[in-house]
């Protein structure tokens, strides 16, 4: 998905041992167009004799085993839905009337470390594709290697950013292509048996994603086509998706290699002039009109009002395509959730104009984040779709949610406790700060430590380039580690980078400086995609470079990572005990908080939402699973979705890493509703 290809809104729409620590707390769309007016109605009963299963293009029509086929599909991402809910969400898409599922493959989920391939759990792509086939869906597979999708780094593994010499992503750079080839040498052999011609559901495979909005390296695209054909053969339809403008289609298509070019465009745009343009970038007779991303909603960044689109407007726009035998794929049919640290981000015209995505990827899709289909958009789209594809499945009831009530939290581990528990072997020393990627930590937090001599008039700290958010603390170096006090000084951010005044301290020796940097999600679209994290410049104290740094990893666990130690809910240090005795919630030191709630029986286990109203900013884990980031003070998302499969009868454990200000009464609440009303409706992260 791409921002420029979609255009503006129609007027009616408006991510060695600190693992131990986490484990300790976690385990944690008509105007008539003559060319298309001649497009025949789909002869659904008319067959062409074929000798085998075959999906192909002829006479500007898709054909499935000799029968004309209209794709009425939807994007649904296995990596944004728990595996236990894959079938449920697919069935709801079936009830909507869809016949095809389109899905991205995020490289970073499957190869989190170089050479380490993961295809289990939420990464079990093969099982998801087989489930699609079981439910009689065809599949359009978007193999990347770049996917965009509001996903961290557009699906690229973050370790690519640490390769030296620096890789030129999304180009014909040989070093980059070699790594893509290594990845596809694993991925595509898994896909080959699942091609439609081999008895599987996969009818088309997309290379790259909206490349015409980024570059113009035809050699790169031809290399990808060659790799795909080498593994999948010449019969599979290889396709591209680009914005429905001449400029993007000229740059992003590969007509000489007989690659089918699909288009996307803003919902509400007249589709048929765009489909006529599409024909100019496909071989004669090989341009069935297809909107491969028909937007049912839109993404939302932190600090924005939640994106909403009108149900009837969306349905009417879809009918403009389907009523003249065009094909469309709903983006999204079901958005799901950016669990873990995998949310993406966008930028404005400048790199510092940074806009991270919400944890929720609800997208205002017809199937809501929790699976709800009892909503106007689902009903409006279903009324249109059933005219063109008979709905044979009955409506399944929307899933019930349960409010489990208040949860009392207790502080268990302070930031200093985390520091003291870090294995010295995991601490990196350097004259200057290094990036997270250089420290081989791809997600979470990195703590930078140095020291300086305090001036009586105070000091001025400046960090010219930090990605993405840095909280600054000082402490007396001479104090005993158990009683040292971290004093919060201020926060500087990528989108609001300001100098910080360090006050005079009465330390007997040098003053320790701690800078906790949060990776809030890598840019997934546009020119600034090479988005390293951490402190990316020298640090200046009173105009002079400050040397002598330690980098202390605080990665926590990401999606599909399994902790290997048991969580023990106890206070690890005297500081934690003192906090709970005094209930000092005014302090700004980040800390881990833990709580429990009980479910009487398996029958009582339902989806729920955790309300973070009254809390500051952080990340949460339920029964060791990273359910994502919260930031209610900025909003608009107030609650985090907790799917029922994460819960169990009896005791359920909740751990949060609170960065700023705990709830005054240290209370969280499990509620039965989604909520996007937090923060200021007109605020922007880059204006905070």
TrEMBL record:
Span of domain Beta-galactosidase 1-like first all-beta: 433-554
Family named by the database record: Belongs to the glycosyl hydrolase 35 family.
Keyword annotations: Apoplast, Glycosidase, Hydrolase
Catalytic activity reported: Hydrolysis of terminal non-reducing beta-D-galactose residues in beta-D-galactosides
Domain Beta-galactosidase galactose-binding residue range list: 590-652
SUPFAM superfamilies with a match to the protein in the record: (Trans)glycosidases, Galactose-binding domain-like
Recorded superkingdom: Eukaryota
Class of the enzyme per the UniProt entry, highest EC level: hydrolase
Protein name (database record): Beta-galactosidase
Pfam family, one: BetaGal_ABD_1
Subcellular location: Secreted, Extracellular space, Apoplast
The UniProt record lists the keyword Oxidoreductase: no
Ranges for domain Glycoside hydrolase 35 catalytic: 62-387
Gene name per UniProt: LOC104712908
């Amino acid at each position: 998905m791409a921002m420029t290809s979609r255009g503006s809104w129609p007027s009616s729409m408006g991510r060695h041992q600190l693992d131990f620590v986490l484990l300790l707390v976690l385990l944690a769309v008509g105007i008539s167009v003559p060319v298309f007016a001649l497009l025949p109605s789909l002869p659904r009963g008319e067959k062409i004799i074929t000798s085998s299963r075959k999906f192909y293009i002829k006479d500007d029509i898709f054909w499935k085993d000799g029968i004309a086929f209209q794709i009425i599909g939807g994007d649904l991402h296995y990596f944004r839905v728990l595996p236990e809910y894959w079938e449920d969400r697919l069935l709801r898409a079936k009830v909507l009337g869809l016949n095809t599922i389109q899905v991205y493959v995020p490289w970073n989920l499957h190869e989190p470390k170089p050479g380490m391939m993961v295809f289990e759990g939420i990464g079990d792509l093969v099982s998801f594709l087989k489930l699609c086939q079981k439910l009689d869906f065809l599949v359009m597979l978007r193999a990347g290697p770049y996917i965009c999708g509001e996903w961290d780094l557009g699906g690229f593994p973050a370790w690519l950013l640490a390769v030296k010499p620096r890789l030129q992503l999304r180009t014909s750079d040989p070093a980059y292509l070699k790594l893509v080839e290594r990845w596809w040498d694993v991925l595509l052999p898994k896909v080959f048996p699942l091609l439609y011609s081999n008895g599987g559901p996969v009818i088309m495979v997309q290379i790259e994603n909206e490349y015409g909005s980024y570059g113009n390296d035809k050699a790169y695209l031809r290399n990808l086509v060659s790799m795909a054909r080498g593994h999948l053969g010449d019969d599979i339809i290889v396709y591209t998706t680009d914005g429905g403008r001449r400029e993007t289609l000229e740059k992003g298509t590969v007509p000489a290699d007989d690659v089918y070019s699909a288009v996307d465009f803003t919902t509400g745009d007249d589709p048929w002039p765009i489909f006529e343009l599409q024909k100019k970038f496909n071989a004669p007779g090989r341009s069935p009109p297809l909107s491969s991303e028909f937007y049912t909603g839109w993404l939302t960044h932190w600090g924005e009002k939640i994106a909403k689109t009108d149900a009837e407007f969306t349905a009417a726009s879809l009918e403009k395509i389907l009523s003249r035998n065009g094909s469309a794929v709903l983006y999204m049919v079901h958005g799901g959730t950016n669990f873990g640290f995998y949310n993406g981000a966008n930028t404005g015209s400048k790199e510092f104009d940074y806009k991270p995505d919400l944890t929720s990827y609800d997208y205002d899709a017809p199937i809501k984040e929790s699976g709800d289909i009892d909503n106007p958009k689902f009903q409006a789209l279903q009324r249109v779709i059933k005219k063109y594809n008979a709905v044979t499945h009955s409506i399944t009831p929307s899933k019930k949610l349960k409010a489990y009530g208040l949860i009392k939290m207790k502080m268990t581990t302070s930031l200093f406790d985390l520091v003291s528990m870090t294995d010295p072997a995991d601490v990196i020393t350097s004259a200057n700060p290094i990036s997270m990627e250089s420290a081989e930590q791809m997600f979470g937090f990195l703590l930078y430590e140095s020291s300086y001599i305090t001036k009586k008039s105070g000091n001025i700290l400046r960090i010219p380039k930090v990605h993405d958010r840095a909280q600054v603390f000082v402490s007396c170096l001479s104090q005993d580690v158990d009683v040292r006090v971290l004093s919060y000084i201020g926060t500087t951010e990528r989108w609001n980078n300001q100098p910080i005044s360090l006050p005079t301290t009465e330390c007997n020796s040098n003053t320790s400086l701690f800078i906790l940097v949060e990776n809030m999600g890598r840019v997934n679209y546009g020119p600034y995609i090479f988005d390293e994290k951490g402190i990316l410049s020298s640090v200046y104290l009173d105009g002079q470079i400050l040397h002598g740094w330690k980098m202390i990893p605080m990665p926590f666990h990401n999606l599909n990572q399994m902790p290997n130690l048991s969580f023990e809910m106890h206070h690890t240090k005297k500081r934690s005990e003192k906090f709970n005795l005094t209930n000092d919630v005014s302090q700004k030191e980040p800390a881990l908080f833990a709580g429990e709630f009980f479910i009487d029986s398996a029958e009582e286990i339902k989806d729920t939402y955790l309300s973070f109203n009254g809390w500051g900013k952080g990340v949460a884990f339920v029964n060791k699973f990273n359910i994502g980031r919260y930031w209610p003070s900025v909003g608009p998302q107030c609650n985090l979705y907790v799917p029922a499969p994460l819960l169990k009868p009896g005791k359920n454990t909740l751990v949060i890493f609170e960065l700023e200000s705990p709830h005054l009464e240290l209370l969280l609440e499990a509620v039965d509703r989604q909520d996007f009303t937090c923060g200021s409706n007109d605020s922007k992260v880059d204006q905070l």
